[in-house]
Structure formats: structure tokens, C-alpha cells
Design goal:
10 helices
Amino acid sequence: MHVLTDNFALYWQGFLGTVELTVYASLLALVLGFLMASFRVAPVGSFRVFGTVWVNVLRNTPLTLLFFAVLLGLPRFGLVLPFQLFAVLTLGCYTSAFICEALRSGINTVPKGQGEAARSLGMTFGQTLGMVVLPQAFRSVIPPIGSTLIALAKNSAIAGAFSVTELLGTYKPLNEMGYNIIWTFVWIAVGYLIITLSISALFNVLEKRYGVAR
């Protein structure tokens, strides 16, 4: 227990860093995921191509490689931002591809008649998607989106290797100070467990309130 009590400030700083990364990257992933899902079902061919390329490139590229490309590659082109912001962009963009596909699967469960009825009333594609299709699709994909955001929280551990303050990175100074490495990682695991269980609880509430009864 003394590993935690003696270094609570260090653990707390890492915990808050992981929470911030998770929250900001999740918001970015949800926005981009909804946007790319809209592109993938849009009547404009160029939008569909862009959405398809976005999803296929990001889903099939290792996350660590994306971190190297963004955090180390973009500054070479003159784009210099704080490493934490780079980490949010990387995690958010990567996760948006999975959010997009989860949401697209939900869109496919909405009967085509819903969209046809909306168009017959004179609604545009954007109105049909935003007011008719997406609200119904989201209700059916709450669990997979929750699982994706839980994975995002765990993936944030990679950011620690790129000078970003997060929970897993606390093991380095503790190891240098000679603390038991096993108990160091036990308390790190507890921190991640708190974060992931909180996300799971939030989406359980959303599912009970808005989810489709099966």
C-alpha cells in the first residue's frame, strides 16, 4: 500500500492525464466517426471514397506507427503542437474509424422505408440522416461504441512513450526510485480499471435508457 500512499501525487497526475486523453480523444472520435459514417452512406461518390479510404487506412495501420507518424512526422512539416494534443489527434482519428463502422452497421439496420418516407416529405439527405436515420442507428450501436471507447482508454497507454503524461508512464520514475515493480503495476491497473468501469457504467445507463429492446 505504501507504493500508492508515498506516491499518490504522481499516480494522481498520471490518472488525470489518462482521463483527459480519454475524454478529449473520445469526443474527437465520436465527431469524426459520425462524420465519416455520413460520408460512407452519402449519395456523393467522392464523399464515399474519402470515408472508405479514411476507415481502411486507419483501421489497418498499427496505432504505434500512427503515433510515430503524427508526433514525430508532423513537426518536420512545420506543424508544432504540444505532444498531448498530438496524442489526442492520433487516438481520436484512429478510434473514429471503428466508431464509423459501428455506426454504419447501425445505419444498415434502419429500414430503407424510413429514409424514403423522409425524402418523400421533401427532406434533404442531411436532414434525413441527422433527424431520422442516425438517431435510430445510434440506439442500436450503443454497446459497440462503448466497447470502442474502453479500448481507446487502454490504447492511451501508448502515449506515455512519447513524453505525454498518462497513467502507465508513472512506472518509470517509481522503478528508478526502487519501488516494487509488481505493486507499481498493480496500482496502475487499478487506475485503468476505474476509468474503464466508469465508461462501461455510463454506456450501460445509456443502453438502458435509449437502447433498442431485444
